[in-house]
Specification:
192 residues, mainly alpha, 2 domains, two-stranded antiparallel ribbon, 5 helices, 5 strands
Length: 192
């Protein structure tokens, strides 16, 4: 596991001292980015925080993996024991059913075991079934989904107005399509 390097530790300690001594509002008033060195100082603090975040996430991931392995091992043993006991119950129920074809259930102080009638399982091959239904004119049993084929092409096909609405070549507004302008997004890319 990567540990935060000593320089980053120093940066983190400075951040803690800064935030511990004053409120966030006071810190904003005291520190303002006025030039390249103050911007560099601020980006250095962000890089230290990102390094610490990565360290925390890495440790948490490692612990989650260990806990998941523990859970998996414990549950595997439990499942194996459950399957053993369920197999014993199943054998008992089938034996009782052989002795009495009308036998349905048995009740104990800890629960009951029973034969329960089940609905058949339906297995569909949609492609084959659709062909058969269409071939035998059961069109009402086939659903056709409609969706816009290529939204990227639509942007090129129609003209966009300043208000974000689109119009076709005849000047008619295209309904169901609008473009909302968004402000530029600020990105901060830290070097590692």
């Amino acid at each position: 596991m990567n540990m935060v390097n000593p320089i980053m530790v120093h940066e983190l300690e400075e951040i803690e001292d800064l935030l511990f001594e004053q409120s966030e509002e006071q810190a904003k008033q005291r520190f303002e980015i006025k030039d390249l060195p103050s911007l560099n100082w601020t980006v250095r603090k962000l890089a230290a925080l990102e390094a610490k975040r990565d360290e925390v996430k890495q440790l948490a991931d490692l612990e989650r993996e260990r806990i998941a392995r523990y859970e998996q091992n414990q549950l595997a043993g439990i499942e194996q024991s459950e399957n053993f006991f369920k197999g014993l119950i199943e054998a008992y129920l089938h034996k009782r059913r052989e002795e009495d074809p009308k036998f349905k259930k048995e009740i104990t102080p800890y629960g009951e075991v029973a034969f329960v009638k089940q609905q058949p399982e339906f297995i569909y091959n949609d492609e084959e079934l659709i062909k058969w239904l269409e071939g035998h004119e059961h069109y009402d049993q086939v659903k056709v989904e409609k969706k816009v084929a290529n939204k990227s092409e639509l942007k090129k096909l129609f003209t966009r107005n300043n208000d974000g609405r689109f119009y076709d070549e005849n000047g008619e507004q295209v309904t169901g399509m609008i473009a909302l302008d968004r402000p530029d997004k600020i990105t901060i890319k830290l070097n590692k």
